[in-house]
Structure formats: C-alpha cells, structure tokens
Fold:
Amino acid sequence: MNSATDCRANEVGVRAKAAARAAETGFTLFELLITLAILAVLSSVAMPGFNRFREKRIADTTIARVAQAVTAARSSAINHNSLVTLCRSEDAEACGGSWQQGILIFTDANGDRQLDGPDRVLRYLSFPEAQGSLSWRAFGRRQYIQFTNLGTTRKQNGSFTYCPYNRKLEHARQLILNHSARARFAQDEDGDGIVDTASGHALPC
Structure:
C-alpha cells in the first residue's frame, strides 16, 4: 500500500518538475506579444530604407539599360555600315507603344523607321522592373533616333528621362545624347540630391 502511494507521489513530482522546466524555457503569451511588438517596430523602421534602396536600384538599372541600347545602336551602325534606327516598341517587331515597354534597334536601309526589305532586328531591350515613365525629348518631338555608319546621329540630340511612379525627384534619372551620339548621365551638380539637366536645372518629373 505504501509502495503504491510512493509511486504516485513520485509520478506527481516528476510531472511537476517537467511543467516547471517547460515554464522556464517556453514563452508565455505576454512574452510572445512583446516579441511581436518589437518585430513590428523594427520592420517599420527598416521598410522605408529598403524601399528607397529598391527604388534607387530600379532607377539606376533603367537608365543604364537605355545607355546600353544607345551604345549598341551606335556600334551596330558602324559595324554593319548601315543606317540603324532606335525606337520605342511594345512588341519587338515595330516602332510604337511607350519607351518603358521596350526599345527596338534595327537596320533601316531606307531610313523609313519601318522593318521592311532587307532590314533586320538587331536587338530589343525591355524594362520589366520599371515602375515609372521613360521618355525621349528631342527637337521636333521625333520619337526615334537614327545612327549613321559614321557613328553619329542624323543631326539629332536630346535626352531620355526616367521618372519613378511616385515622382520622387531623388530617384529621377536622365541620359543626355549629343549630335555625335555621345551619351552621358546627368549628374547632381549642386549636391541637392536631384540630378540636373543639361541647362543646370533640377530634373523635373
């Protein structure tokens, strides 16, 4: 009888100790709520910084791809000893659509800005991450650029401008192109955090 009682007592003691250890090593509901609150605060602090980094990366990548397209078109005109057209394209088959949809580069023997006759596509660049607008501004509002076999434009100069969807000027970018088909990135000349146009003014969006 005493033996059975002792066994039960020992069993109860073991369970009590196990429960005590679990209480010591586990989380109470209050502790869990505190942990979640701390994580929420840390996330709210880190998220804006992450978003700024992402927006800057998208802006830099977009304008860099435009510069890549200009360089490729100029080099192709020289290498193929042919007139080459660079234009906005939504389908990689013809000029049209918007610049942020894509850029089409093709040989253009007769300079009519259409893929016909012996013309062929040389390259197509898209902007899958771009979340803003990309525009080309030049004299006469011509939405294309043509490169000669000498590596120059056909008396065209202008600028490509990328504006983010939220219109934050700190993430606006511009590529400036002159008659000789030399391109340069607009810089922040006055240190105000916004790149400046060729005329020295803050880039508008």
Remarks:
- Residues 1-16 have pLDDT under 50 and may be disordered.
- Helices lie at 2-25, 29-79.
